[in-house]
Amino acid sequence: STQRSIVQECMNFLNSANKEQLKSLKGIGEKRANYIIKLREHSPELFKGIDDLRDVIGMNKREVLTLYCMHTFIDIIDIYIWLVYTVPVLLTGTCTTE
């Protein structure tokens, strides 16, 4: 689905971006970027889903939302789909689309 491909693209970016690319994302500064890179040395596929953003690097729900909305590969249609399908999951912890 489009929702899953958006999430997967974000995870791929976080798993491969260099320090400067990571720092360009709202919510990721010098400290988090260094931490992500250090963790990736031991686990190259560190990020597999949205929960990993909270569990691995301690991002809160608002930071996750901001990160996704600010990332350049999400266009208006993708943002709409993401808001309709992903935000309820983030807020409630349950998926209502499956």
TrEMBL record:
Keywords per UniProt: Membrane, Microtubule, Motor protein, Transmembrane, Transmembrane helix
Pfam families, A to Z: HHH_3 (PF12836)
Gene3D superfamilies: AF1531-like domain (1.10.150.280)
Keyword RNA-binding in record: no
Residues annotated as transmembrane: 64-83
Lineage top rank: taxon: Eukaryota
Annotated Gene Ontology cellular component terms: microtubule
Xref: InterPro entries: Endo/Exo/Phosphatase_dom_1, RuvA_2-like
Claim: Oxidoreductase is one of the keywords in the record: no
PANTHER family hit by this protein: ENDONUCLEASE/EXONUCLEASE/PHOSPHATASE FAMILY DOMAIN-CONTAINING PROTEIN 1, ENDONUCLEASE_EXONUCLEASE_PHOSPHATASE FAMILY DOMAIN-CONTAINING PROTEIN 1
Protein family according to the UniProt entry: Belongs to the TRAFAC class myosin-kinesin ATPase superfamily. Kinesin family. KIN-10 subfamily.
Name by which UniProt lists this protein: MLOC_21671-like protein
Species this protein is from: Hordeum vulgare subsp. spontaneum (Wild barley)
